[in-house]
Amino acid sequence: ELSDAERAFQARIDAGIRIEAKDWMPDAYRKTLIRQISQHAHSEIVGQLPEGNWVTRAPTLKRKAILLAKIQDEAGHGLYLYSAAETLGVSRDDLLADLHSGKAKYSSIFNYPTLSWADMGAIGWLVDGSAIINQIPLCRCSYGPYSRAMIRVCKEESFHARQGYDIMMTLCRGTAEQKAMAQDALNRYWWPALMMFGPSDAASVNSAQSAQWRIKLFSNDELRQRMVDQTVPQIEYLGLQLPDPAIKWNEERGHYDFGEINWDEFYQVLKGNGPCNRERLRTRVKAYDDGAWFRDALQAHADKQQENKKS
Ligand code: 3HC
């Protein structure tokens, strides 16, 4: 049974009114936003690692500059999203402690290895492509700071996806070995990219409530279907084999049918047993510890400024 305050809150949500940080909100609304926004931020920060692996081995200076710019953008997205989460009354230190302790999730996709340069193409094209499909609706979600952060993020994300597809096009127009690299990267990233959208709607524990609060404007399966429908023609344009033999246009549905996702793999990765989970967390913890001296110096400087102001 909803309280009067919760009923009034839901009426604002239903009227499409943005909720701002200073507005009253049910604790559960605050909690699920902290959960989703902080994990979104963690995804951006950890998401820099797979691509960082190829900066020193980019094939040209131009590709290296583009990859560096993309990785830098992701860092910015992460900091932007931590700031959005802080408006809900949590501290960045606590959020980072949850990530480093393994308590907080980040997108499963970043627990896969980047084995060739073609993976940089597949990641931009498929991972950022999926992220865009997931993030565009979030620009219209009910929580003001989150929706506004998404508008800026989506603008930069489209550059990420385009440069990825450009890498794939270059490889597919190259030698047979280069085209084979692109095919291998597509085969390895296709299913994990579809897993980014979350469990099936039937298995999604948070969807119903998030939909009611207009945090989730489209269901996991709807957005996943959008990704498949958008990407199959792009695969065909590249002249690559479809990574899922069950993909078939369904005239009646007006969508592509496709095969069943390996949910065991999905839940294993979420449990921390993906190919790179331990390495990703170790790298993040080391980076944080190595940066302690810098944070201490900043604090010492701020304290001294404070002292000077008093005297
Ligand atoms: N990886 C890790 N965890 C996942 C996941 C995935 N791909 N998909 C779902 N989960 C988790 C959920 O977080 C939830 O666990 P929790 O309750 O402990 O948080 C559980 O699985 C059940 O899933 P639900 O569908 O019930 O949960 P949500 O309603 O939160 O939906 C979501 C999951 C669609 C990922 C949603 O949280 C969301 O839209 N998040 C914001 C967008 C986001 O995080 N995108 C992925 C980041 S990729 C990125 O942005 C980097 C890009 O710039 C390259």
Tell me how many strands there are.
2
Strand order of the largest sheet: 1-2
Give the helix tally. Answer: 13
Could you name the ranges where pLDDT drops below 50 across 5 or more consecutive residues? none
Mean pLDDT: 97
Helix content, binned percent: 55-70%
- Global Rg: 21 Å
Fraction in beta strands: under 5%
Biggest sheet statistics: 2 strands, antiparallel
- Taking the alpha carbons of the first and last residues, their distance comes to 57 Å
Q: How does the overall form come out from the CA principal axes?
A: globular
Quaternary state, please? single chain
List all distinct small molecules, including ions and cofactors, that are bound in this structure. 3-hydroxybutanoyl-coenzyme A
- Secondary-structure element sequence? HHHHHHHHHHEEHHH
Class inferred from helices and paired strands: mainly alpha
InterPro entries: Aromatic_CoA_ox/epox (IPR052703), Ferritin-like (IPR012347), Ferritin-like_SF (IPR009078), PaaA (IPR011881), PaaA_PaaC (IPR007814)
EC number: 1.14.13.149
Pfam families: PaaA_PaaC (PF05138)
Protein name: 1,2-phenylacetyl-CoA epoxidase subunit A
